[in-house]
Amino acid sequence: MYENHFVSVIIAAAGMSHRMGSKINKQFINLKNKPILAHTIEKFERCRFVDEIIVVAREEEIEYCKKEIIKKYKFNKISKVVRGGKERQDSVYNGILALDEKAGIVLSHDGARPFIKIKDIVSGIKGAAKYGACVIGVPVKDTIKVVADDNNIENTPKRSLLWIAQTPQCFKKEIILEGYKKAISDDYLATDDSALVERIGVEVKMIMGSYDNIKITTPEDLAVGELFLENKSIIFDNRKFILQSR
Ligand SMILES: Nc1ccn([C@@H]2O[C@H](COP(=O)(O)OP(=O)(O)OP(=O)(O)O)[C@@H](O)[C@H]2O)c(=O)n1
Ligand SMILES: C[C@](O)(CO)[C@H](O)COP(=O)(O)O
After folding, report:
1. Which atom of ligand 2 is nearest to the CA of 215?
2. CA of 169, closest atom in ligand 2
3. Which residue's CA is the nearest one to ligand 2's atom 8?
């Protein structure tokens, strides 16, 4: 609970892992001997404000998920495991339909983002309570180009305005519900939840997160992920910088 809001988290884990090119769902691949999805769920389990976690899994993986992730790692905030849909948006919507009736704040999170920090989850929950809608993200470091089909560069957006949207994306329940209902009635598909809320005219705040909250998408992300879990530190300017603080 956060300030009388019941906090629900939807973890989307029902993708096909096409870009990983793996036979098994990438979320069941081990990083330091623990499946990626277990690393992810653990962060939300350990966040004291989180009341329930709904895992969205592929229908054929629901039983595996219950046995090899939830039971094995003794997670006890999981209220339901529901089946996913064709797109991430369909999967999150199935999670929304399964929310506890007490839900007041709803977070959506990618099962494939295991390095989320608890402090950033807390910022997201507080942001949703304060503003109604917020997204955890980081400013881009590179210059971004808009490129046409023929590879010609069309334009160069001003970098200082560009942020990478990560998850969790955090909303008051009625706001995310309205965004999803409108998207469904308009047959509108987006790659994140915030876009559905932005298009109904609700302001969404961007909240500074952490650069290590990467999405495990392609094989090189696994190597980076293993490195993060080493908890290696680098020292410069008499400051200690820990690659991933847990
Ligand atoms: N129909 C879908 C598609 C994606 N996801 C989840 O949404 C998150 C972000 O998606 P992404 O990294 O793109 O995963 P995949 O869709 O599995 O990857 P790909 O596009 O390479 O197949 C992942 O945790 C993924 O499991 C989901 O629950 N349901
Ligand atoms: C929601 C998301 O993780 C924000 O960066 C991202 O949009 C998911 O997109 P994908 O196409 O499912 O990788």
Report:
1. 3
2. 1
3. 191
Q: Which ligand is nearest to the CA of 191?
A: 2
Sorted by where each begins, the domain ranges of the chain are 6-133+167-221
Q: List CB contacts of 121: < 8 A, sequence separation 6 or more.
A: 43, 44, 47, 49, 50, 107, 168
Q: What is the pTM of this model?
A: 0.96
pLDDT of 243 strictly over 80: no
3-state SS, one letter per residue, for the chain = CECCEEEEEEEEECCCCCCCCCCCCHHHCEECCEEHHHHHHHHHHCCCCCCEEEEEECHHHHHHHHHHHHHCCCCCCEEEEEECCCCHHHHHHHHHHCCCCCEEEEEEEECCCCCCCHHHHHHHHHHHHHHCEEEEEEECCCCCCEECCCCCEEECCCHHHCEEEEEEEEEEHHHHHHHHHHHHHHCCCCCCCHHHHHCCCCCCEEEECCCCCCCCCCHHHHHHHHHHHCCCEEEECCEEEECCCC
To the question of domain 6-133+167-221 being in CATH 3.90.550.10, the answer is yes
* Residue ranges lining ligand 2, Cβ < 6 Å: 88, 110, 165-167, 191-192, 215
Question: pLDDT (tens digit, 9 = 90+) per residue, 113-129?
Answer: 999 999 999 999 999 99
Quote the ligand 2 centre to 137 CA distance (angstroms): 12
Q: Report how far residue 154's alpha carbon sits from residue 178's, in angstroms, rounded to the nearest whole number.
A: 34
